[in-house]
């Protein structure tokens, strides 16, 4: 809350201003769900600058682990590699190819469908697209086979204490 003093006709009045949660975009909070992705099974992102050719609707893609931007950057997945999702057709796009030259925005339908996506705190640097696990401090770190993988990082983190979106794919039981 912010307090300020205003003089009105020689009378000093103390006013209080409170911020409504719907007035401004609040910053992400650990444990908060990303309902946009979770509800539709579709994630928005951009064509990675590392993508050599244009992406077309129907192409299978994965998150570019070399990209260093906040939004998911997609590259075409090799025919024999696992993918995060499929580029979807949208009537807003004409022509139907997404160019890497301009970092063009696109939408990807997740292969897992409607999955929970949640903000979690990192214990160290995490690469976008990497499998992640919880460590002994209940923080997310890159999967190293000692614990159960819980999902995939949709965002990268430069170090500890950063909030990233994690697409949950498996519960860490036992």
Account of the 3D structure:
By secondary structure, the chain is mainly beta. It has one domain. It has one helix and twelve strands; from the N terminus they run ββαββββββββββ. The strands form three sheets. It has a five-stranded mixed barrel with strand order 3-5-4-6-7. A five-stranded antiparallel beta sheet has the order 8-12-11-9-10. The longest helix has 6 residues, at 35-40. The chain is globular. Residues 1-9 have low confidence and may be disordered.
Short key terms for the protein model shown above:
single chain; mainly beta; five-stranded antiparallel sheet; 12 strands; disordered N terminus
In short:
The protein is mainly beta and 174 residues long. Helix content is 3%, strand content 34%.
**Got a strand count?**
12
Main-sheet strand order equals 3-5-4-6-7
- List unreliable stretches of 5+ residues: 1-9
Structural class: mainly beta
Element pattern in H and E: EEHEEEEEEEEEE
Strand content: 25-35%
Q: What gap, in angstroms, lies between the N and C termini?
A: 44 Å
Share of residues in helices: under 10%
Overall 3D shape: globular
Largest sheet: 5 strands, mixed, barrel
Q: Could you give the topology of this structure?
A:
Elements: E1 2-8, E2 11-17, H1 35-40, E3 42-47, E4 60-63, E5 73-76, E6 85-87, E7 105-110, E8 117-121, E9 131-134, E10 140-142, E11 149-153, E12 163-168
Parallel strand pairs: 3-5
Antiparallel strand pairs: 1-2, 3-7, 4-5, 4-6, 6-7, 8-12, 9-10, 9-11, 11-12
């Amino acid at each position: 809350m912010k307090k300020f003093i205003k003089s009105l006709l020689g009378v000093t009045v103390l006013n209080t201003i409170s911020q409504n949660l719907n007035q401004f975009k609040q910053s992400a909070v650990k444990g908060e769900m990303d309902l946009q992705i979770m509800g539709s099974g579709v994630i928005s992102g951009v064509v990675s600058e590392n993508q050599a050719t244009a992406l077309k609707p129907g192409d299978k893609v994965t998150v570019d682990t070399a990209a260093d931007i906040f939004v998911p950057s997609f590259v075409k997945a090799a025919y024999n590699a696992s993918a995060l999702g499929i580029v979807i057709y949208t009537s807003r796009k004409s022509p139907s190819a997404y160019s890497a030259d301009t970092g063009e925005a696109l939408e990807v339908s997740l292969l897992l469908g409607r999955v929970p996506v949640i903000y979690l705190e990192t214990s160290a640097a995490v690469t976008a697209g990497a499998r992640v696990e919880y460590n002994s401090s209940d923080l997310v770190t890159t999967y190293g086979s000692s614990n159960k993988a819980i999902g995939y990082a949709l965002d990268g983190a430069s170090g500890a204490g950063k909030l990233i979106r994690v697409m949950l794919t498996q519960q860490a039981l036992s």
